[in-house]
Amino acid sequence: MAPNPINKGQVLEALRTVIEPDTGCSIVDLGLVLSVDVVDHGLTAVVKVVQEPLARRLIDPIRAALESIPDLMDGRLEFVKEPVWDPESMATDQARGKLAELASIPRDPATEEDIWHWLSQLIEPEIGLSMVDLGMIYGVDLAPDGRTANIRLTLTTPMCPFGPQIVEMVRQGALLAKGLDDATVELVWDPPWDPRTMATEDCQMELGIY
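The structure assignment produced for this chain is given below.
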């Protein structure tokens, strides 16, 4: 039996079930969803979401919501840098009120443990393994106030074609840590990356290093 085509309303209804836990508001009401396009004769949904830590922390629930839509064959999630999220113009009145309440509450500072948690989920694009497990992230230097961090990163080679992409990916990954306001990424070449001594045993096996 052929699947029934879906419509934009069904996708938005599913996305409204994704709740940002601190505000209790859906990602739609917060204005984090920029657009929903239904293509391929109603079988594919393309959802564009702002490149904002508040949204990126919810990537798994967003994907789960898309997967819950009957007859949806493919749900594509894209994070875009522009326009920059502006809750004053993008969020509903209720969501803006919740955000204002949240802003008035003192925030706990970020922790190194939480930063490492998010960094561990980043995948090196050429090798396809965790950058932390590969030993490519040399360290996290968290400021005393817990609001800014410097990530010391190396690449597989100074000529890595994905260098700029990886640097930005690491910066965005660090910013997923709650309480962190800003992050910088410092490229380090000394010592040079050596998976034989820096990667985990599991990574070494994946790479054929015994």
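Interim note for the steering committee: The longest helix spans residues 163-174. The two ends are 50 Å apart (CA to CA).
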